[in-house]
Amino acid sequence: MKLVIVSGTVFGAAEDVAHHAAQVLTAAGLNVSYKPRISYSELVALEPEALLFVTSTTGMGELPENLQLLVNALRDQPPQWAGLLGAVIGLGDACYGEDFCAGGEAIRELYAELGIVELQEMLRLDASETVTPESDAEPWLAELAACLAV
Ligand SMILES: Cc1cc2nc3c(=O)[nH]c(=O)nc-3n(C[C@H](O)[C@H](O)[C@H](O)COP(=O)(O)O)c2cc1C
Questions:
Q1: pLDDT digit string (tens) for 91-126?
Q2: Could you tell me if 141 and 24 are in contact, meaning their C-beta atoms sit under 8 angstroms apart?
Q3: What is the rounded distance in angstroms from the CA atom of residue 100 to the CA atom of residue 92?
Q4: What GO molecular function annotations does the UniProt record carry, in alphabetical order (predicted)?
Q5: Does 99 contact ligand 1 (Cβ within 6 A)?
């Protein structure tokens, strides 16, 4: 099972979580690719069997710029990804109310449009509650590893 991790970040926290996820999931025996700021063509060329997007939210509920470009490209030229397995980790701040983790929600919408099947509920990491998002993600990552190993 080839899992590709994609991250979207402004200040680097989502990238740190993505790096940690790559380590944890590789140690769990999965074939993981992670390249920060991957382009559309690089991503499609990897021929993923499963996708993990790790993204923060910026502005008022927007995706970080690097992911906006990638998501627009995936919408303009949708790859044949129907039936692919997917999961999302959203980083945000609950102080933003309705826009909490809206970037992650935007990726869930993209998954639905492309026919990607979400494996488990999106993990929401709240910067107003924790300063250790990498280790907070570990139980959720263990669940994901178990789903993908089947
Ligand atoms: C200017 C700005 C706008 C933000 N807007 C949102 C938002 O709309 N919703 C949300 O949940 N978090 C929002 N956040 C919080 C960030 O998503 C959160 O701090 C996250 O951990 C940052 O991750 P990053 O370092 O990968 O960018 C915002 C933070 C900043 C500085």
A1: 999 999 999 999 999 999 999 999 999 999 999 999
A2: yes
A3: 6
A4: flavin adenine dinucleotide binding; FMN binding; oxidoreductase activity, acting on NAD(P)H, quinone or similar compound as acceptor
A5: yes
> Which residues on neighbouring strands pair with residue 54, listed in sequence order?
7, 89
Q: Show the tokens assigned to 105.
A: 């929600």
Q: Return the residue matching tokens 């502005």.
A: 59
Q: How far is the CA of 32 from the centre of ligand 1 (A)?
A: 26
Give the residue, by CA position, lying nearest to ligand 1 atom 6.
58
Report the nearest atom of ligand 1 relative to the CA of 101. Answer: 11
DSSP 8-state assignment for residue 49: S
Between the CA of 56 and the centroid of ligand 1 the distance, in Å, is: 6
**Which domains, ranges and CATH numbers included, belong to the chain?**
2-149 (3.40.50.360)
Burial class (CB in 10 A: 0-12, 13-18, 19+), 12: exposed
Does residue 7 line the site of ligand 1, with CB under 6 A? no
